[in-house]
Amino acid sequence: MPTIALFRFWYEGNSFSPLPAREADFRSREWFSGKAAADFYRGKALEPGGAITAAERHGDVEILFLDCLAAYPAGPIEAGLFPAYQDRLFEQLGSRAWDGVYASLHGASVCEDIEQPELCLLRALRQVIGETPLALSFDLHANLNPEIGRLAEIIVGYKTHPHIDMAETGEKAMSLLLRQIEGEIAAHSTILPADFLPTSFNMRTDDGPMAEMAELAARCAEDNGLLDVTVFGGFACADSPDSGAAISLCGEAGGAALSAMGQPLREAYRRLAPDFEQPLPAPGEVLGELLASATQRPVAVLEPSDNVFSGGAGDTPGLLRAVLAEKPTRPCVFAFFWDPELVEEAVRAGEGAEMDCRLGGRLSDSFGAPLELTVQVERLVQGTFRNRGPMEAGLEVDPGPSAILRSGQVRILVTSRIVPVNDPAYFEHFGLALEPTTLFFVKAKNHFRAAFTGLFERFVPVETPGPAPSDILSLPFERVPRARLLFGRAPHVSKREPRLREARAEDAEAIAALHAESWRSTYRGILSDDYLEGEIHEERARFWRDFLARRHPGDLVILAEGDEGLLGFIALVDEDPDYDALIENLHVEPEQRGSGLGRKLLAEACRRLIAQGKNSVCLWVFDDNAAAFAFYLRLGGKVDKKTSDPDAPPSEADSRIGWHDLPALLAACEAKRGKGTA
Asked: What does the alpha-carbon distance between residue 210 and residue 212 come to, in Å, rounded to a whole number?
């Protein structure tokens, strides 16, 4: 009777997520071995469940489950966890003579302490097991080093995205392994990198370029008598030397012959690279029409930049902020924010209570500042639910204690655990019916479509700042080769909105450089050339180092960052007796003038001031700075003081422009703009 060791490490890591993966995250989803693992996986639509099916169909096979771990995608795995897993695994393998080994891997792990963790594991594994047949299964989004093809006889991967063939993949891997053990086949595998890095937005296998590749792969397998051909899309948010698209071929030919069979497929894949790019609209481009339209079934607006299955953490506020700005009059559901502390506050307040809260931006303000709201605690929910599928059918899901908070027509779901919205049982668990008149706003992407096709009238993905944007060139990659990043996409085009965040002490030099550049380009002829050509940068650097180090409670500095660094900033202080706040500086890079960035910064400042209960703001402008002067007047500002006034501040600026209605100023900033200085 063949004895097969089965182990699993299923994790997809987003290098740009603010939330690392910890041991508790694995233990809350999958952390099993031995009989407990067999009992858990039997009958579930996961790879080990499919392997059990194949073994039981074959008969006379013993599967011994070693450590099997899985967690929902997040950031890099905390240091020490993966090495400890590998040590336990090899201890479990021991010196026993196994007939075969099957590893269920994702293939896109990233760790704080190990680069290329799966490759390191498989290298060491081959040393331990010698010539024992090894079968590997991978997620379609695996980032595969070609060396892996030389370490395993059998490699198979998911053929579907959304992934509804996990069990079938495990079943195929185990079936081929059993045939290899019995001498029926003599399999070899190879991996061909395609040397580009597509995003998964347009990677569904039912349509588009990936559907074409799936068809070509099936034809390649049939024409060449291969055991398996899988097209891997890679995972674009993992900053790894191996990140990228690839093709695996498994057959009885040698490695060189397999590579030759796969070359036409690789060339076709590279020709299709541009087709994977899918620019997404900003929320403001679609929300007005969606909120006003009548529908026969509910509509889902998707926020893939914070999708859990891409490493999102339920923490970005961009979409909800855009929704609330529209003041919807039809029912809306927002799913979800992850905030255990906020859920505890809601529990203490009780159902029906009103409470002030901050939503999003809890882990990092890199993707937007927290949204401050007064909400009603509509409902508190506890318990678990079981996925119906098609993806991960039978898996028990525990979102932890949760709260449904209400702001006007918008119900906002807040959970204590991060779980993806990828099954109809999710909304049923929270008592949120799929009413035709309801708009659903969901942190999800393609897997949501698989679960809800037929239940929703349409799916509308939008782009917001987050750790998994459609424009991956906006992410600060360090390990992915630049040529691979740029292949198939225009390097100079960034579709991502600037990221807004509060300044920190270490930002002083960048702010000073932009400040000096802005003064030189704006104030030529207003300030003296000697001053502008002098030590203005050093002076501004000293000023900003001191300002950010000594900030008073009323001070606020908001930065706008793009792909190449700082694009603009706004600084406010509490130094004008007639107003709640004084805008001391508002500057954008010269090439950003007319882009609307100044409006965005001013709008964000208004939101912060309104949240603090303030209602007025002012600034001082040079009269000769005609473009800026006109810009502020168009936004409803009123000139109420000149430097000729005896009590005016000691400033060279000529006129004070003020606003005594911050909501009106915010609305003016957010209105569709004409040409202007900012």
From this structure: 5
Residue reference for tokens 């579907």:
160
Cβ atoms of 276 and 209 closer than 8 Å: yes
Q: Which helix (H) or strand (E) holds 84?
A: helix 81-93
**Six-digit token string for 334:** 């927002």
Q: Which of 335, 331, 330, 342 is nearest to 319 (CA)?
A: 335
> Residue 245 has what DSSP assignment?
-
Q: Classify residue 1 as exposed, middle or buried by CB count within 10 Å of its CB (0-12, 13-18, 19+).
A: exposed
404 has which bridge partners?
379, 413
- Judged on CB neighbours under 10 Å (0-12, 13-18, 19+), 525 is exposed
Q: At 454, list the tokens.
A: 């037929």
Q: Would you say how long the chain is, in residues?
A: 678
At 430 the pLDDT is 96
Alpha helices in 389-481, H assignment, sequence order: 424-429, 446-452
Element (H, E) at 458: strand 458-461
- Tell me whether residue 260 is exposed, middle or buried, using C-beta atoms within 10 angstroms of its C-beta: 0 to 12, 13 to 18, 19 or more: middle
Count of beta carbons in the 10 Å neighbourhood of residue 35: 10
Residue reference for tokens 């076709």: 268
Reported as a single tens digit per residue, the pLDDT across 254-299 is 889 999 999 999 999 999 999 998 888 889 889 988 988 888 889 9
Q: Which DSSP category does 274 fall into?
A: G
